[in-house]
Amino acid sequence: MKQHKEVEKKSPKSSSTEHVKSPELKGGSIGADPVVPITDKTNPKGTRLIMQVLEKENLNVAYYNVVGNKGSAGVDGMTVKELKPYLKERWTRLQSELERGTY
Predict the structure, then answer these.
(1) Region (Disordered): which ranges (predicted)?
(2) 49 occurs within a structural domain
């Protein structure tokens, strides 16, 4: 028998709290909202930001922090141990998709 999960959600118009059933129990989709490209041609700041994020030194620091923290698997189920070979095989394509905002 499935139990209905409820989460508290504050209403922006008042301080009252209402209960909302979680989307996974209503048949809704789970996960992040659709992606909007970061590299908006009209906003060079967004383009510069993604390029800073993708700098090799920044990515290495992030990777070693995850490895050092023994990070747990994400929603995709990939473990830290599987991450390095995955990135080595797919990095060129992933980098290109991130730069274009099509990931």
Answers:
(1) 1-43
(2) yes
